[in-house]
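User: I'm writing a tutorial on reading structure tokens. Could you give me a worked example: one chain, its sequence, then its tokens, then a sentence or two explaining what the tokens reveal?
Assistant: Sure. Here is the example chain.
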Amino acid sequence: MASPGVEVGLLVCGQSDLGEVAPEIKAPEARAAVAGADLEWREMEGEDRELQYGEGPNEAQDSDFPAAGGSRLQEMLSLLGLETCQVQKLGLQDALQISSDSVRNGAPQGPRDLPGGFLRRLQALSAEARSTTVLLGLPPGARPAEKGHTEEEVIYWDAADDSAADIYSFSELPTPDTPVNPLDLLCALLLSSDAFLQQEIVLRMSLCQFALPLVLPDSENHTPSFLLWAMRGVVRTWWAQPPRAAGSLWEDSVVLPRTPTFAFVRMEVSSNSKSQLLNALLSPGHRQRDCFWHRDLSLGTSSREIADGLVEISWSLPSGREDLDLFPEPVAFLNLRGDIGSHWLQFKLLTEVSSAVFILTDNISKKEYKLLSSMKGSATKYYFILSPYRGKRNSNLRFLNRLVPVLRMDHSHVLVKVSSTDGARFLRRVRSILAHVARAPCRRVSVEDMAQAARTLGLRVDEDCAECQQAKGRMERVTRSLRDSDAYRREELRLQGELWREAAQVEKELCQAQWAGDPADQRPAELRRRLLELRTQQSAHDPAGAVQEFIAGVSCPSLGERQYFLRWMEWGLAWVAQPRPRPPPEAALTLRPRPGGGAALREQLWPEPLGVEHFLREMAQFYEAESCLVEAGKLLAGQRRFAHFPGLALELLVRGLPLELIDGSTRSAPLRWVTGLLRALHGRLGRRSRLVVLSALGVPGTGKSTLLNSMFGLRFATGTGCGPRGAFMQLVTVAESFSQDLGCDHILVIDSGGLVGGAPASAGERFELEASLATLIMGLSNVSVISLAETRDIPPAIVHAFLRLEKTGHMPNYQFVYQNLHDAPAPGPKPRERRPRPEPPADGSRAAPLADKQGDGLRTLADLAFCDPEKQHIWHIPGLWHGVPPMATVSLGYSEAVFELKRCLLENIRNGLSNPNQNIQQLIELVRRL
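And here are its predicted structure tokens:
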């Protein structure tokens, strides 16, 4: 029980807000009301003796799942076209396929379009992803033109019809036959998805700043599910105290930090909206956030069929701005959908994990009293937010006075909010209570702690399945000795030392010598001998224990366990080996490449973190060394031990893992490994091997990886300095029904990572290296997206690559993208305005002298003579956030611009970029030539 001093403090700081209720409870006449309530209670007990103390929760639990619950779920799934997904769950690859719907952005035509539309909008980080509005009453052939903002119901009527012409008859117009509550859509989709699509949905919802599903009701199986696995991939960044100090920018998975947690629930009927109150509490400044879906949004008042019992979670995260931050540390908020009496198991969970529970209700009667009385002895603080019915005032007061000692409350724990209540003052009052509880010693729990409490109560935890736990055990064996990353690399990743770097350098020199083409030059033969010596030394090693365990994990016969293992590896390496505090954003500004040391500075401040790609590099080096010996006749093909490695990596590529094309440490491409991987892919895809290559290049930090992820649902690493350096590729499948129209079966997407950083031509070797890598990536591409910063400058290496490719006759379709992506959660001045784009030249008279400069001094689009003003595509992508992250809302303009760019790219592919005869085999030959 809170100390008297604390309670008095609460009362004093907000007594004007509590004046509506506290005097009423404390007044002398209230004592008479209490005595009357005692007599009334004894009379009720005599009338209803079968209701014993403590039976309320059991009754509520029995009513959780009415007999018709299962049929309601089946009806909802059938309505949404998901009825077959209960046997064969939707997977990540199903959601990421490119189909004819990928080039449409209109409102859904019916309920069966809602799941696909939700996933596509979520992928594009659209703030309107949760909209379930459909176009109604459209006669055939009268569909409106598709526009990015078409979201409203369209109803047609005949003006000649007298009843329809009567404006007052609008209230009689039919509503959708089956309006779908957005929360029902979310629950139905999650129940129809496998663990990996669930994880992707939750991750994208987090990026959209939506509240996340934590406990998922399942009326058919009568067992709610706690979504620990689905939440595990969500990573957030925030400022610790004091802001801007060394190590104060903190990054962590949301399931790990222990934070104060506040639950908001409804008991019976409440005139006040929990979700609107939570949104107001979580909105810094004057910008309203619709984190939790509420009754005033589209279809927010439509009845929930299957979503009652859903528990959502969101966080208030510090941004380092005292004028915006509500709390100096992360604080979690939980929201239970539905009445606590009907979802007692979920309510019981919330009381066991929360620092305080806020109960919104209009009525406290005998039934509610008995329910809450069963919580006697709970260590959780309870607060009531009342909006009493007319005539219920005295009844509420009676039972409140009985609950005060049971729940160890005092009168400051009761707030009244009616229509005449000042909303701003009431919000300040609630925030002061939250701040007081968070500052005082209180229960702090992580999402992992919540999962353990859920297990104790009998809820199913999604992470407890056998495949997931076996994969986790294997990951722990791989990372058992991981304490120091450098020592771990030396001991376990033995082929990635000096031998590897020297072999990469020798291969670069050999390539240059072969291109020189001097028959009298003995240099190539010497380089081949040296390369063979290095590869022989590499082959003398066997894979270390951790690498063998990793190979066993990616070779597992169970596809599910293999996918679980890879995800566990990503998290295990990220959170075991790496410190969680990140360098402050000021350091990021110093990482912009400068002559004579930009790259070295980046290497020094942010060493490349250990990741899954390092284990795949090790496999690649074993394959490269063995292949080199076979080519030199030093090893028989039948004696190979690692020939199956490309096939193992291929399975990862097909399942959505980015694979390294050019490693970021040596800035070289393992040619034998890449060609072996592409051969395996060619064999795997068979007749469906027509391929288009799309690449993205640009200065690091301009948002190109986020852009690719938003367009195609990919998983390229994002964030300045915290991801792997290198060029990575991912495979996007085109639906078979759409491949003939689009002209290809797959799109291979290449992200250049941080390889092309903008070194000037005067940087010598560094510039030449960047230019060569840009030429290689663009030379493989059918279309290249060039991501530029707010200024009009183009990285010289990219200009150089354009000029080289122009000479060869191969010129990819190119899209220049100016991005305004400010995602660092750092306080500071507003970004400078983007300068206007210069006009392109009217003719190509400058092409020859510019080509001689080899990119030196070419900085703008106006310098590129081949930029045809009729054909060039220049995009301005708005900023991703409204406000200061991590609490900023996502910009609708960003998702709309991303969709338009994606549609343009697909239209260009459809209109001739794709060669019907181009396949993976031709790509292999192109890799060899380049």
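What the tokens reveal: The chain is about 45% helix and 10% strand. The domain at 691-723+753-828+843-912 is CATH 3.40.50 (Rossmann fold).
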